[in-house]
Structures are given as C-alpha cells and as structure tokens.
Amino acid sequence: MNVVQFPGRELPHDWQRSEMNALLAACGEQLDKGTVSGWEIGETESGDPQLYLLGPAPDHECILCVSRLGRVYVLEDGQGRVLCEHDALGSLSDQVRHALRHTKASIVARATMVWLAIKETLEERMDPVLGEPVELLSHMAPQLVALV
Amino acid sequence: MHATKTASKAAQARKEAGTWLKELRARAGLSQVELAEKLALKYYTFISQVENGFGRVPTEQIEAWGRALGQEPSSFARRLLSYYDPELHRLLFEVKE
Fold it and tell me: What ipTM score was computed for the predicted complex, to two decimals?
C-alpha cells in the first residue's frame, strides 16, 4: 500500500482558531458528559498538526485523532482506523460528532458487558449460599404444616 | 492536557512507550512514512499518535510493528506490555512462585 504523503504545505502548521473552534464545538456535548475528558495537540514528524480527543480517566487515551495533511483532514480512531478524509471542515465536524456518539455507545456496551460478567460471577457464588435455606424450607414446610 | 489537568500514570507510561518506539524507528533508519508503508497503513498519522504517547500499538499489530522496527516480536511485546499494562507485566514476568 502506498502511504499518502503531502509534500506541499500551503497552510500554516498550527491549528487555526476557526478549525479548533469547529472541532471542539463538535465534541462539546461529549466533553460535558465526560465521554471526552480533554484534548491535546501535537504534530507528525513532518509538522502536520494533530488534535487528539482523549477518553475518560484513568487512561485518558486517544479515542479520536484529527490530522491536517495539506488541505485534507484525516479522522482516525485510537486504533489507527481511518474513519474519514475530508477537505471541508464542516463535514469533518459532523463526522467527529457522529464518531463520538458511536464511541460513547461502545463504552456503554463495554461497561454493560463488564457489569453482566460481575453479576454472573456473584450469582454463581451466591447461589449455593442462598439456595441452601430455600431447599431446607421446602423440606420443612410440609412438616410444619402438619404440625399446625 | 486541556479540560483535565491530571496526567495519569497510564498516560505517562504511554509517553515513555512512544519515546522508546520513536528511538527504535530512528535506529532502524525509518521515517514515519516509511514505517507506515511497512505496516500497510494508508497514512503515517497513526505512527505519530502512538509516538506522541496518545495512542498505543494495537495488540494485533504488535508483531508487525516489532518486525518493522527490527525487533524480536516476543521481547518487543514484553517491553510494550511493561508500559501499557505494568501490573500484568509484573505478574507474568517479575513475580516468582
């Protein structure tokens, strides 16, 4: 596979205020909800600006990364999967919003899986303890009834 | 970090992993573009994400990264684990019976 390179640079290296405003507005709701815990900026070896949107504590790992290569914006997830490539900031912001909603859903799904696994383990351990008195009661009940 | 000021231990360890990976790449004489090419990535931006300490090498790509950087995959994976999951690394390789 040929890696896409961008030798020509017509835009300044750093993020422009309008770009940052648009991208941070796109993740504002998830920042409030905590799905996004913060953000950082950085750059590639060639000086292309990158914006990292970070996930919840304690890891604060990158969940989405926006890079600007020449005039193209590349949106990737934290696993390096390319989610979209756009030259229009508006479309990119929509994709960021969409991807964050998806990320939130996957975080909730993962938390639910963990909770179900814990619940199942607890039930497995508690069943013998809770089952014993019930079993005893079912044996004793007819005799108690007979006494009444 | 913006919005949150606390740099967690995990974030710090990821930074160290990123620095180590960057050193290995430099030693292998590869640019980010060349490493991305070896890993069959469309863009080199993920290499930067990992080297800057914000992302981590996905488990399923550890072997490919190791080989691309001229490292023996299992010792490369072990070293990465010491950054990404130090507790598991301790239990697997440091705690004696």
Answer: 0.88
